[in-house]
Amino acid sequence: EGGRRGAVTAGVGRHGPGNASDFYPTPPAAAWALRRWWGQHNPEGPARVIDPCAGMGCLLIPWTVPRAGEDAAELLGLEGEAALVASSRRGWVEADRPASPVRQGDGLAWLASSEDRAGHGRAELVIANPPFSRADEWVQAVVAWVKATGSPAAVLLRSQWIDDGNTKGRGEYRHGSAPWAILRLPWRIRFNGAGADSCTYAW
């Protein structure tokens, strides 16, 4: 997610205190890995990139730089916590980036309300690093959006979450909505600025 409550709570105790809001900014390397992979497989690029659980907008930063042959994509980040939206605005200005595309809003509600927009033209792309404690809920919402709109999405998750197809509540994901591709990150991510997490992750 563009720098939001990250797909990690399991390893937090090993390297530092937990985070009450389940917010851990997405490391730049993970965000750029998706950007590069997407550009290699989709030369034209999406018309719009949306992070429905954007935090401070870290996932959207790589998309501010169009690749050769791409048109610039419209960016939208939704974040429920006003403090994170404000931090995003300050952070993007301080880093000499364009104005932050993150605004306050309910990402799950956006996904649900967008489900009837199939056939809207050039593809949108949803990207998300959801709160690990609510990963099942977010994946189900994203999958429903993909089915309804026909547009693609990428979600950052623990590799174990992806590999475990027998866990309760994931049958639909594994058997009815298997991902077209899995991009495994070959390094252990640092979500909290301390040691690397004990898990591996994948898009």
The termini sit apart by: 11 Å
Radius of gyration: 16 Å
Q: Classify the secondary structure makeup into a structural class.
A: alpha/beta
Strand order across the largest sheet: 3-2-1-4-5
What does this structure look like?
With 203 residues, the chain is of the alpha/beta class. The strands form two sheets. It has a five-stranded parallel β-sheet.
What would the keywords be for this entry?
203 residues, alpha/beta, five-stranded parallel beta sheet, two-stranded antiparallel sheet, 12% strand, globular
Task: Please give the structural blueprint.
Elements (H helix, E strand, L loop, with lengths): L11 H4 L12 H14 L6 E4 L22 E6 L2 H13 L7 E3 L2 H7 L10 E5 L6 H15 L3 E3 L1 E2 H5 L7 H6 L24 E2 L1
Parallel strand pairs: 1-2, 1-4, 2-3, 4-5
Antiparallel strand pairs: 6-7
